[in-house]
Amino acid sequence: MKILLSWLREFVDVPGTAEQIATTMSVRGFAVEGIESLPEFTEAVTADGTVARTPAASADAVIDFEVTANRPDCLSVAGMAREIATAYGLQVRRPVAGGSSLALTSLKSVEQGDIEIAIENKELCPRYVGAVADVTVGPSPEWMQARLRAAGIRPISNIVDITNYVLIELGQPLHAFDSTKLGGGAIRVRTARPEETLRTLDGQMRTLTPEMLVIADAERAVAIAGVMGGVDSEVSAETQTIVFESAYFTPQQVRRTSKRLGLKTEASTRFERGTDPRLPVTAMERACALLELVRAGTARGTLVDRYPIRLEPAVLRLRRDRVSGLLGTTVPDTDIKRILESLGFALREAEHGWDVTVPTRRVDVLREVDLIEEVARHNGFDRIPATFPAVTVAPPPMDPRITQARALRTIMTGAGFSEAVTFGFISESSAAPFAADGDIVPIANPLSESFAVLRPSVLPGLVAAVAHNRRREQRDVRLFEIGAWFSRARGERRSLALAWTGAVGADHWSGGTRPIDYFDVQGVVHRVCQALRVDPRMEGVAEPWLVPGRGAAILANDVRIGTMGLLASSIVEQQTLSASDAIYVAEIDLDSVPPLDDDLQVEALPRHPSMTRDISILVADTLAAGTVRQTVQENAPDTLVRISEFDRYQGKGIPDGQISLSLRLTFRAPDRTLTDSEVQKAVEGVLAALNQRHGAVQR
Amino acid sequence: MSDTPPDRSTIDDLRDRFRARLESSETVAALKALQDQFLSRKSGTITGLMKTLGSLPHEARREFGSLVNTLKTEIENAIDEKRHALESSRPPAGAVDITLPGRLTPLGHVHPLMRVRQQVEDIFTRMGYEILEGAEVEDDFHNFEALNMPPEHPARDMQDTLYLAHPIVGGTWGAHRSPVPGHVPEAQVRAATLLRTHTSAMQIRYMKTFPPPVRIMVPGRVYRRDNLDLTHTPMFQQFEVLVVGKGISMADLKGTLEAMLTSLFGHVKIRLRPSFFPYTEPSAEVDITCHGCGGSGCSVCKQTGWLEILGSGMVHPAVFEAVGYDPEAVTGFAFGMGLERVAMLKYGVSDIRLFYENDVRFLEQFPVP
Lengths: 699, 369
Prior knowledge:
In chain A, 27% of the residues lie in helices and 28% in strands. By secondary structure, chain A is of the alpha+beta class. By secondary structure, chain B is of the alpha+beta class.
């Protein structure tokens, strides 16, 4: 709200500079967005064509106050003046009939005036005041135009300027109709008829709906109530008689209409937040006084005030101990009374405090706590001391999810991966390969194509981040992210995703490094599983976003918890990288993994030595090592405690289509030292089973 | 050697030449060459001098012979000494050049937003607060209505919302707590229709599930329909704190904020400015003194000396009513802070988009821990 300092001073004799006022008010709830100093000289072109400079009466400035949505009463010079007067302990001047400044022209309220007014929807329009005036349309005087411009309003003509002047000065939106263009000399406040149309002042043809309130003459709509007038009844240079409208429309109605039409005006902004139902008559009398002041015309002397629903001020109980209890400091009674009365509240002593009458303009004050805020605001938040809330209950348990995320962060950074944070929404094309048909959740009102759907996986965003780095000369990129993803079928879930491209490690003088391969990434996946305390098993998988034969489903206890593999070249190319860029990725669904607990019991350390036996077998190269491992496990005694593959060889000396696979088997018994023959027997049993099941031949 | 008889100055010249050569001989091989030059039986300079002795008169031969011998001994000793020094400074067998770089196992970095988040989590964990993560998708009731923002409330404009084309089930929370939230109606998000615009929705779900007192922090990602620019992102990280109990006051809010902000930013002063949020009353914006100028005014703080850091207030009675708490019996405070803002001020980041580009050259500037 742009407030001109000299205009403000018509209401309150506030001392100091614009900057000083801004500093004071910014801690009273009115942040200042800017201060504009007006030139100290006014310039005008004289008759002989030269520019004359006249010193301005006083240094003037415009303070742009940020008025919060709950304070429509401060969207005016008078409203801000009231706040400033309270902050400075000053009196505020009000417009009065016959006053030298802020003058009002008294109008007699009549039932039947020069205009006939009927409200059909009183719930939507509780009050409508109309008055007729005879006018000569022309430009308004320079001082009025200057003030409007300072407030950010474009001067149009004396009549329109007067309505805007009153809007800025008092906060009451007014409208002026050309009375001769109102058919039947009547005003009807009614809802729009189906398909009713109106060309509004901005030149647009608007199609109205029956939920919208309009001002109509006997036949048709002439204005959209509280939003904008119509072209047909607009005041023009030829206009000789006008009807001023000064009304109270219900906020929800104006808000809904303005939103539906996509039409926001100075008037609608105020109506939709709530104007003062007691203001319309004063505003009308002020408009008529200005009419005479700027010699634009004369009011007929009467007004018609339709007020079918009277909005009475609320009375709230304010308790002393609630003030001190909520603020944590005691505010003296005298200060409470001073502050509230200065803001226009009326106080009457009551039990434990006061009964407070709330001015009708204060639409934000509905409860006791709102009064406490008023007191706190003008008493100063800086007077509130700093204390601590007492702890009254035992400390809560830690959410294992947080523990898990922190453990993963430690493990992943230790493994050389940096944490990324990417957006929760991505483009549909980058999401599509990662989701089943119809499982993507689109955003109904997306900002743009690149933020069109909720991510069905953390991977697409992470891959984009890898690409960002690859395009910036980074050869090795290791990134991970812990975050939510979304599916129509499964809802919102959390996962850990990682992406890795480049070399295993940094270059070194002792020899080069090598590009990462599948098993480097699998190693990291395994480590993550260790941190999550699950034992992973890999199963071949076909995903459209993975290279065939280079991807695996990660299973724990036979439940799929994730996927890993080499990113398909189509996806790499989508990121405008070369298809030869090998990007390995993995994602583990953290909601599928049991929470970490501290339920640990140590096992006694082995007391007897272990024995190892190495076996090398020839098997078909299509046989999965996991299958061999499983066969070994199933056919060995309980004393087999460990199997590790230590060599896999294919080539010279090995028949075509076969591989040599070497396994190290470790045997140990908890209660005795194993004998050679016992272990030998176990190994023979394993070899026999491998031969029988897979045709494995010992080398 | 010349045929002129040697004299004392010849000896002195020779000594000086030897000393200079010795000085610059830094290897055993160089030392050997030096030794040969002076002492070689065939061609050594000293040996040559010795050979000229015979041509001298008896007296001179005695005197000069003694001088030459002294020099010879001196040279032998000096070479031995230097050789010994060189040999003893030789690294032992198998020694490595310890100034060469080692093989670096790469170290990852924690994202600055997560780094700040854990710092704040730690501050409040030390004060006995519980950490909760809510769902990122929410329904209208928990995101708006229960927070005193009924449909068509003007304040909804302050947080332009992204809606889902289809309702989905939201993420779970608080499985570690008893009663299990899943068993409390409405604890979990059953049909989310929007992306949460703030973490405050968790206030509602928590209070509907558990009785007072409440002492929680809710960090998480929130979404608004904002275009990407220097200071805005359509998704950002919010950190919310809620305390409810008997006699909780605005002074408690102020003390708690002071503790957090000085812990994060060092010796700053804080200022509460009246503001408006539908779910708090009174509401306050919180400023800290500008680190750029210490409060005297500079371009960072637009000459005000203050930097806005978060929004806060006393929980609105309507919120208590929505969750079934008695606003006459309990009061509370809440605040919400953007972690981007904190990280920008703390680390001097001037473009918020850097947090979401994940450029490793940016990430690498944040050490672990």
